[in-house]
Inverse folding.
């Protein structure tokens, strides 16, 4: 049992709360992502788990033991940072061997473990190459191998892919995820990239201004965000100010009424409601199709057709919608075309509006 739990963990810098009373439990063997905009406290929280930063108050427990004040080098955690921090004067094998040397692992055991790790990251043929002669993705793999060399009980990753170009980054996301699942090592990763979090995480912790805004499985958060902030941060969304009429329907900005689900979620103050509908839930119908329930008239004002997917901007009376579809699903869509946008009730979520602070 290697359970990690945080109890009211707080870190202040002067008067400012970088992390504000965070309670969290990380499931064993899973990958948890801390996700949020720049400055929301993700890195500070990870550094406190690592032991590189001390909480101002609160408690961190690991495997049932209070580790709040245990120094980083006594925590048995593996870490990979944005900078990777590989030793440039060493070879691939020497970098991977470093934590084993520190622990005075016997030579024969070191050699066996290095061979196993290099096999795992698919670089066995590069053992004696200096790390300076590796590509970005290869360096990334070496950093991960080094972090897991001493079989840490927890793996901490701080934006480990941010220096890579988009394509390599996506490939590495899958690679790290598969490796993490194979090893079953509890992993905490910081990212500000929601797509990365959705690709890799078992559980996402969305952070806002030092606090947890929502914790859950990626798709649960995507489909059921608790606030406008979370809805906006996770994926693309149409977020419209609406008024709730008390009977499972809302009035859109232009006055059109549509039925919605989730009436129970309606916030107490009617002025504070937003309607969320994801672009892939907006069905675009050619205007000659009859108007029906939950259909609003509009006109196509922009089309982003990238072959595999198609995104259309639809100007309606009083608001604009984005619809995501495919060229095959909606052939013949053209700029200036009058259309109906259908907003299925089950896909219309009501959420609390972001409060200004
Ligand atoms: P980013 O994605 O930009 O790295 P983050 O979500 O990881 O951001 P943190 O680096 O944890 O955010 O910073 C949270 C807040 O704490 C920020 O306002 C930051 O300026 C502040 N902060 C972090 N470290 C220090 C420090 N050593 N001294 C003073 N303020 C700090």
């Amino acid at each position: 049992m290697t359970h990690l739990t945080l109890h009211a963990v707080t870190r202040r810098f002067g008067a400012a709360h970088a992390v504000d009373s965070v309670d969290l439990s990380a499931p064993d063997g899973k990958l948890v992502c801390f996700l949020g905009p720049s400055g929301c406290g993700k890195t500070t929280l990870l550094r406190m788990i690592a032991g590189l930063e001390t909480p101002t108050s609160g408690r961190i427990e690991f495997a049932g033991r209070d580790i709040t004040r245990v120094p980083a080098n006594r925590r048995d955690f593996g870490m990979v940072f944005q900078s990777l921090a590989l030793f440039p004067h060493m070879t691939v094998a020497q970098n991977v061997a470093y934590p084993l040397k520190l622990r005075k692992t016997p030579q024969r055991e070191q050699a066996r473990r290095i061979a196993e790790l290099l096999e795992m990251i698919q670089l066995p043929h590069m053992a004696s190459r200096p790390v300076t002669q590796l590509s970005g993705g290869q360096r990334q793999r070496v950093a991960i191998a080094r972090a897991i060399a001493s079989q840490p009980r927890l793996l901490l990753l701080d934006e480990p892919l941010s220096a890579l170009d988009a394509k390599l980054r996506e490939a590495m996301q899958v690679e790290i995820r598969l490796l993490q699942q194979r090893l079953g090592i509890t992993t905490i990763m910081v990212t500000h990239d929601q797509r990365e979090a959705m690709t890799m995480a078992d559980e996402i912790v969305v952070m806002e201004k030092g606090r947890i805004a929502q914790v859950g499985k990626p798709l649960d958060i995507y489909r059921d965000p608790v606030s406008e902030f979370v809805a906006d941060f996770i994926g693309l969304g149409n977020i419209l100010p609406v008024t709730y009429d008390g009977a499972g329907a809302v009035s859109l900005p232009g006055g059109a009424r549509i039925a919605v689900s989730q009436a129970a979620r309606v916030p107490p103050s009617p002025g504070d409601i937003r309607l969320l509908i994801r672009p892939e839930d907006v069905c675009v119908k050619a205007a000659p199709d009859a108007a029906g329930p939950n259909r609003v008239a509009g006109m196509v004002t922009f089309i982003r057709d990238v072959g595999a997917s198609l995104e259309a901007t639809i100007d309606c009376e009083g608001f604009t919608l984005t619809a995501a579809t495919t060229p095959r699903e909606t052939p013949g869509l053209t700029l200036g075309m009058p259309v109906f946008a259908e907003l299925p009730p089950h896909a219309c979520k009501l959420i609390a509006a972001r409060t200004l602070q």
About this structure: The first strand starts at residue 4 and ends at 13. Helices lie at 42-50, 92-102, 107-120, 136-148, 166-183, 194-200, 218-223, 228-233.
